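Q: My labmate handed me this sequence with no annotations at all. I'd like to see what the chain might look like in three dimensions before we decide whether it's worth expressing. Could you predict it?
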Amino acid sequence: MWRALSISVLLSLAGLAGCGGGGGDSASTGGGGAQPPLADSVRLSNVRTKGTAQTTYVSNLNIGDLSVTVDVTGDLTRLSGQTLYVIVEDVDQLFLADATLRTSVDGLNNELILQGSPTAGRQGRYKGPVKIRVCTDVACTVQLGNSPITVPYDIEVREGLAFTSKAPLVVEADFGVIPEDVVISYSAPAAADVPSSPTLFAILPGTPPSLDLQDKTPKSAVVQSDPAKTVRVSLGTAPVGTRTIQVGLSTRAPTEAGTVTLNAATEITYVVRPVAGKVAVFDPNTVEISTVASPIYGGQFSPVKVLSADGKRYSSVSRVEYLARSPSGNLDAGALQWVTSVLNSTPSSDWTQTVQLGGTACPGNIMDMSRPCLAPGRYDALVYLKTEDGLELTAPVPVSMTVRLQLGG
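A: Here is what I predict for the chain of 409 residues:
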């Protein structure tokens, strides 16, 4: 591939003034007789290169830059009023069309930097030259001495880190049902380190990608050991709706310049379908509390994970319904309201909200050692939760408290 780069900045060589002209070099002057050809008067010399031997990987990386430094020597006054063009022949198309040229006023140490192209789809080994011509016209009919410069290279693009499972990955489940794990296969360079545990985060509809999302972590994930080369993602339960789970994998691999980080990413579309009559699920299904019928014993708190179908955070108690005596063995607490307030309600690492519900056999002022206590037995209640703005969850959390005469009894 040929590319013409008009490098008018080269007119600063030797502090020469002037702009314009791309018409080539004249072979004669008004009174001094014929001049020698431009190629005999101005030459490219002392060529130095960097980046001609590279090993890289198909990944998010580009091929490394190729740097060519050259001196322009000779009768630099011959360049006065000239526009110089740099013509790059890149048969393998390993480098981008945009190049960077750094020049000097004395003609020395002029550096041309060819920026490497993306490695995607370029796996293989490339051995060939880049040819660089420096000319006074875009057709390159008049070149400087020693032009073209031929720069051989040996660039290998190896297999990178990539997920190989066919996309799209779609998982569907009814609300409250944990779907099967998603197993995603990947490929990695043989010389690379064992890939690290994947990073995962959820992008909800209308929400920009952010690792700071409150519901960022599906649940858990592990990378199986080689040679399996698979990532197993446990999605867990989630609110009703569709969300995108982004899975990222990272590893390090060697190059001539040192180790580089390779990254791969893929997406899982997670669809949770609504279930008629199911507005929330609790883990455990019933909060079990065991306490002692003694005023010196303050009671007990027990955690419950709450997942609502609408995805809202129900984090405090709205009201409590104490159940009457029943044939199942539940006793009637009468006027004693034994369910205590919520303690340390916090978001979990998945989509659930962890709520601490408590119970005491001797409700009332804890400083009053004469306050009445419940008789030994089992007491049941239904606890309705609400959001911070007062919206009540219509499905209550069942709470069952067993009262004993003494610890361990």
